[in-house]
Design goal:
With 146 residues, the protein is mostly helical. It has one domain (7-143). The chain contains 4 helices and no strands. Helix 2 (58-84) packs antiparallel against helix 3. The longest helix is centred in the last third of the chain and has 28 residues, at 116-143. It is elongated and about 50 Å long.
Length: 146
């Protein structure tokens, strides 16, 4: 398969995934540090379901909504890189797989009421995911150079 791709699209997708992921991490740290991690005791939705949440659920709801958007962009980036950017295939695919693991750790963190080891695993996996997406961005950018 020939590498014919639109450099701006590949760079844009990988940068968007990285920026969204960083934003999710910032909101997640805020939710944890402000002791709002269990304001939405059910997973994946808050008590209001898909409707706009009450004020006490707002930050946790925003965190979970941002996760859905970020994971969608991470998966889109992985699909694009698998098809078009050979140097970024491994990191993009690993990023998508780690995103699934990260969601699972998020589920466990809420279900088991924030045990410290799971919270640490959730954060560590998030950092690993950030690293995968950063390497994907760098590989995609490098692939645009002749």
């Amino acid at each position: 398969m020939a590498q014919t791709f639109k450099p701006r699209l590949g760079i844009g997708l990988s940068f968007s995934a990285l920026a969204l992921l960083y934003s999710v991490m910032l909101v997640g740290v805020y939710v944890t540090s402000s002791h709002q991690g269990l304001t939405c005791p059910d997973w994946p939705l808050c008590p209001n379901g898909f409707s706009f949440p009450a004020a006490k659920y707002l930050f946790e709801f925003v965190h979970r909504l941002m996760v859905v958007i970020a994971v969608g962009v991470i998966i889109a980036t992985a699909i694009y890189c698998l098809r078009n950017v050979k140097p970024a295939r491994k990191t993009a695919l690993l990023g998508a797989l780690v995103a699934g693991l990260q969601i699972f750790f998020g589920y466990l963190t809420v279900t088991f009421k924030l045990p410290p080891l799971l919270v640490a695993a959730h954060l560590s996996t998030g950092i690993t995911l950030f690293a995968m997406m950063l390497m994907t961005l760098l590989a995609t950018y490098k692939a645009t150079k002749p």
